[in-house]
Amino acid sequence: MLLKTFGWSFGITVLGLVAAAFYGGWTAFGVVAILAVLEISLSFDNAVINAGILKKMNAFWQKIFLTVGVLIAVFGMRLVFPVLIVAVTAKINPVDAVDLAINNKDHYQELVTDAHPAIAAFGGMFLMMIFLDFIFEDHDIKWLGWLERPLAKLGKV
Predict the structure, then answer these.
(1) pTM for the complete prediction?
(2) For the segment 20-60, what is each residue's pLDDT rounded down to a tens digit?
(3) 60-105 pLDDT tens trace
(4) For residue 97, how many other CB atoms are within 10 A of its CB?
(5) How far apart are the C-alpha atoms of 6 and 10, rounded to whole Å?
(6) Strand runs (DSSP E) across the chain, as ranges?
(7) In degrees to the nearest 10, what's the CA dihedral of 15, 78, 52, 135?
(8) Which label site among 31, 41, 82, 112 has the fewest CB atoms less than 10 Å from its CB?
(9) CB-facing half-sphere around the CA of 53: CA atoms within 13 A
(10) Which uninterrupted H or E stretch holds 60?
(11) 3-state SS assignment for residue 78
């Protein structure tokens, strides 16, 4: 059952680790292994949230949510978004940003590092939005009821 469900995932993971070791040695193997564990743990966290959203949808919208969501998460946030951040913060064409990422990694890395304040501000504001939603919205389950109830009432003013 385990291999039937996750066989392709395990196979691709092993191929990725072998490729990392082949191209970059043990250091690259270690980095890829650590990043894989980090990615899996963050994906699990998102899967729990998505499961709560998906259970309220019918089968058609579940399929749309998962298809579009995976495309946005994998291609949008991993490939397109970093290039767009560099393009916007460095005031260059997105095509030039892709060219830098492929052909001039050192300069691209400098531009990403220079964009760190904007990236951190965006991430901080996103987390603040989630926190404020948690504090001010009414929820079925109250973890900190003594604090959440009065703040939820305040949020409805």
Answers:
(1) 0.57
(2) 999 999 999 999 999 999 888 877 777 778 888 888 999 99
(3) 999 998 899 888 888 888 889 889 999 999 999 999 999 999 999 9
(4) 22
(5) 6
(6) none
(7) 140
(8) 41
(9) 12
(10) helix 59-71
(11) helix
